[in-house]
Amino acid sequence: MSENLQATNLDVPVWLRVALQEKGVRRFGVGECNPRIAEYNQCTQLAGYDDKIAWCSSFLNWCMKQSGLRGTGSALARSWLTWGRPLSQPRYGCVAVLTADDAVDWKGHVGLFLRIDADNVNLLGGNQLEEVRELAYPNDRVLSYRWP
Questions:
Q1: Which of 16, 63, 85, 135 has the most crowded Cβ, counting Cβ within 10 A?
Q2: What is the DSSP letter of 53?
């Protein structure tokens, strides 16, 4: 499936608009903490943690909260597997839940769907190369697409 979505502002879900405004927020170096990432962690059981911990799910929970929606409240990426309803096909801005690189069955990654091609799904998410950014992941890592 190949999609090149040209969304208008009306087509962009509010949580994705919130996330897009956070692009470029990144983890600070050793001995420092980005207070914005610590704020993301306040939306999960990672409250009080710095930016050195995995924060992809904290970021999505924060985006949902800013949008007036309830997230999972969990720092586990796979907690999003039971959030909202499953989609048979991805939808612009939907939550995409992925396996982790190391295939440990409780680990994962979560981000917001932007587009897909034959090989990769592109997501906007937190803790993607230590920042809020767009990044491509192999399609075979996708576990589920979710919508509120």
A1: 63
A2: S
Distance between CA 116 and CA 118 in Å, rounded? 7
Percent of the chain at pLDDT exceeding 90: 87
| Bridge partners, residue 98, by sequence | 109, 142
Cβ–Cβ < 8 Å for 24, 34: no
User: What letter would DSSP give residue 83?
Assistant: S
Confidence (pTM): 0.91
* Phi-psi region at 90: left, alpha or beta (left = phi > 0; alpha = psi -120 to 50): beta
Q: CA torsion angle for 129, 145, 71, 16 (degrees, to 10)?
A: 60
Q: Where are the domains of the chain?
A: 9-147
- Tell how strand 120-128 and strand 85-87 pair up: unpaired
Asked if 44 contacts 75 with a C-beta cutoff of 8 angstroms, the reply is: yes
Adjacent-strand bridge partners of 26: 131
Please, what sign has the CA dihedral across residues 137, 139, 143, 148? positive
Specify whether the CB–CB gap between 92 and 5 falls below 8 A. yes
What CATH topology corresponds to 9-147? endopeptidase fold (from Nostoc punctiforme) (3.90.1720)
